[in-house]
Specification:
The structure is a homodimer. Chain A has about 230 residues and is of the alpha+beta class. In chain A, about 40% of the residues lie in helices and about 25% in strands. Chain A contains seven helices and eleven strands. In chain A, strand 4 and strand 5 form a beta hairpin. In chain A, helix 2 packs across helix 3, helix 4 packs antiparallel against helix 7 and helix 5 crosses helix 6. The longest helix of chain A has 26 residues. Chains A and B meet through helix 2 and helix 3 of A and helix 3 of B. The structure holds a DNA duplex (30 and 30 nucleotides).
Amino acid sequence: MLQTAIQSRHIQAPPAAWSARTAPNTVKTAPARSFETQLTVKAGETIFHEGDEALYFYKVLSGAVRLVKAVADGHRQICDFNLPGDLIGFSNAAEHEFTAEAIQDCTLMRYRRKDTNHLIRSDAAFACELQALTAKGLSSAYAHMVRLCHRSAHDRLAWFLLAMSDRAENDDGWIDLPMTRVDIADYLGLAHETVSRAFTQLKKSSAIVEPTLNRIKIDRVALEDKLDAA
Amino acid sequence: MLQTAIQSRHIQAPPAAWSARTAPNTVKTAPARSFETQLTVKAGETIFHEGDEALYFYKVLSGAVRLVKAVADGHRQICDFNLPGDLIGFSNAAEHEFTAEAIQDCTLMRYRRKDTNHLIRSDAAFACELQALTAKGLSSAYAHMVRLCHRSAHDRLAWFLLAMSDRAENDDGWIDLPMTRVDIADYLGLAHETVSRAFTQLKKSSAIVEPTLNRIKIDRVALEDKLDAA
DNA sequence: CGGCACGTTGAAGGATCTCAAGCTGAGTGG
DNA sequence: CCACTCAGCTTGAGATCCTTCAACGTGCCG
């Protein structure tokens, strides 16, 4: 497995743990229960805004979502991408701390925040799972910091692609990248032109294969070597 | 509020509030109880290592701690600084995700993790509290991402100093910076020379006053103007 | 067809990193 | 009291990388 390979080289483990998530295959169309509501959101639509009263939190069933914080100078920071199984917007703050936007058509399960404490009390398993998912989100956030602290643009992108591979690789080895280059740039703290150039170089060096813009296959060893060399 | 819930239920004598960000002046030397142990750590010593089995979590009573993740190329990323009132290492992961090092002589309160899990199951209020604290940590992590995404070194430093001001300003308006320039650099993802130059410029522009290395006073308006202008 | 969003590529400029040297203050030992 | 050491901080200069601005290409859609 990747972790062992990387750890043996004394490298920071790759950001396998993304935001709060469960294995994709555990995602089911849950039966309707009183405390949850299923809904669909079209690509480009906003699920909630930064600063909105946090009435609900969500779980992604299908599609992809980006979490965006606006920054003073007009730039934006994408804090995380959420894929099926991930939780969105769970915090105890009264207001949402970021804007959640669908980047693909999504189906979501919505939970009422005020029911949460009741559920925690009445359902120990739910409480433990929620705690674990939130802690995982924190772990993911720390991993992202490590990504951002990498000075080199190529490092950041390689790191990102390895993480996407752990997280969203299909059975046939292909990785779907639902986000645009601009999204990736805002996620990694780079200019989108820089991301584009880094992609081109990775393709030239055969570290990735990219027949279409949103579908790639990576050469793990080559990418990890690039991290080592840095 | 949740804090009060936990205090009244499990902690007869208040070890301050159980908040990830408690006001320093509420920190007291709590009496010894079965599930907590007070200990002291000297500056430079390690509290726990990244990858260690997570047997305990801690609360800072006095001093300052840095949370460090090692990165492949020999660099390191400081994920957070912890000051009195902060909690350290309270995720549900089996292993600590970062190394915690004292940057000043510290007194800490140590809690056994397995007691925590028991309490989650048996006591809903505790579970809610822990959930809230973890969510707060996540919020702090997102805020840090925004700091890191600021392209300019001056922006990052200004942001950092404003945050330290919110967090650690004394009654007389002075801010203690227990961490070195190198620590700040690793926190902000910059070279320490760059941090030093940024400090110098802020001093020249009178945005900060710095009679000694570890003690500054900031001009909030000037710093915020710098962020806007960027 | 035109408009538009997204992506790629080039060129120039600027910010940061790296390497290197010197400075400061604290602690130590003579 | 002084010289010495060492860690942390500052400053300089050059090289490197990234950003910015600009142009162009592509695919989609009305």
